[in-house]
Amino acid sequence: MMTTNRPVALVTGASSGIGKETARALVAAGFEVAGTGRDTARLTPLDGVTFLDLDVASDASVTAAVQQVIERFGRIDVLVNNAGIGSTGAAEETSVARAQGVFDTNVFGVMRMVQAVLPHMRAQGRGRIVNVSSVLGFLPAPYMAVYGASKHAIEGYSQSLDHEVREYGIRSLLVEPGYTRTGFEANSARPDTHLPVYDRQRGVSDRLVTQAIRDGDDPAVVAEVIVSAATDAKPRLRYTAGPLAGRASVLHRLAPAGIFDKQIRKLNQLTG
Asked: In this structure, is residue 2 part of a structural domain?
C-alpha cells in the first residue's frame, strides 16, 4: 500500500471529456487521482493519474476497481461518478431493452459505485460523492427522453442519499453541466426503430443538439466546478456548470409553469 498525505479521488469515465479534465484538475488541486475507463491500456498517461480498467455496468468490475484503489492508496476521499452514455430519438422509438442499457450505466452504475465506496468512507468518517448529472436532470428532454429520465433518476437518488450519509461525515452532491464539447453524440444509443412520423422533428432535434455541443462549454469548465464540489468547506447540494446551465436553472426555478412550457417548446423548435 502506498502511503500519502494527499486526499484521494476516484473518477469514473476519465478516459476523455469531462472525466479526463476532472482528473487533471483534481491533480492540480492536490489529489492523488485514480481515473477509470473501459480500456485504459489505449490511453495516453496523465501526470498524477493512476488509470484502472472499470465497467460500471459490471458488479465484479466495480468491486475489483474500488479494491485496487483502497489497496494502492489506503482510502477514497472523493468519488466522482462521471461515466455515462447518451441516448437520442423519440421515446416511442426506444425499446425498453435499450433504455435498460442506458440506465445500467447512467443510474445503476452510479449505485454500484456508491455501494462499493460507502463502507470505506463511513469507516474513515468522511467522504464526498460528486454525481455528474445534467441540466436535463431537471429540464424536459424532447427526443432524449431516456437520457433525461436517467439524469432525473440520478437527481432523486443523489439528493436522498445525501440525507442518509451526512451523519457519517459524507456528502452526496450534484454537478449539472449544460451542453459540453465532448463525444456525447458518438457515445449515444440510437433508437431501435425509426418511426417516419417522428422523422422531421427528430431531425430538428439532432441538428440542435449537434450545434449546442459544438457551441458548448469546454470540459475544463465543468471540471473546475466538480473540484469545487469536491473541496468546498460548506458544499451546496447542486452546482450548475457553465452559463447555459445557470440560465436554465434560473428559468426552471422562477418562470411560471406556462411560460416555462412555452420556452421549452421554443428552444426545441417544437410545433403544435
From this structure: no
